User: What shape does this take?
Amino acid sequence: MLVRWVIQTRQPFTVVEHPAFRALIEATGATLPIKTADTLSNRIKEEFHSRRAYKKEELARSSQTLALSLDVWTSENQIAIMGIIGHWISPEFDRREKLLESTEIYGPHSGENLAEVVLRMLDELDIAPKLLTITGHNAATTGRSAIAYTTNSSRAKILKPFWDHTNSVSKACPTIVEDLSIYWSLDDLLNDVRNAEGDFEDVNIEIRDAMERGIQKMNKFARIMDDNLLYYVAPVLNQRIKSSLIVSQMSEQSSGVIVSQVREFLKKDYTPEPFVSCEVDHPRPAGMSETM
Assistant: This one.
């Protein structure tokens, strides 16, 4: 109770050494359990670490994804403090909100300093892979912190290739000739994340499952493409591509079937026209022999 009283009423640790406080405790007939400021400080640290460990265990047990909101303010004694609150939904669909961090900020309120606080907290509580969003009250400071974190987070590492892919497609305004390569490169990205291969070896199971659902949805569009041979005919008619793209991306059997279908399609729809001579027989003038 003494530790809680000191924390909640914001008493100085030296209060337990003050003669008036000791006299008050003795007047009640109780024994002062903590007699020095150093002992009180150690007890508070023990209480903090105990509650921190419980919070970490609670997050591991009850959260799959997590959103953060944070703010920075200056206390009455002119100390800069940053607070971070976690928001998540438990497996029982209960909304949870917990204070995850409240710490002094050393140095300027720059995005880099704030990001360092966020990163340290994410690492201590082992929740970085669960992070969805960061919301800050002040865009000039906490907003930069969120950006600084996002730039360095594993989630950004996953999303950046998809952003680059989408951005390049939007700028290029591709024709039907490029449709297959666009689809297959996106399919390769999704599969790499789902299988935790290449640059995505450290991806957690939740993100891999999300990619699996994305692949399932994309496959619906792939079946539509497969039913329309024109998506395969277009690159084959391109002199720079021909059948090389299909052969490189599909199995030998599948590519052979597609190339054969394309050839049959082209023979059927583009049959050779009968030869028509451009020479015209003109009537011979009267009195002109054939040898003239």
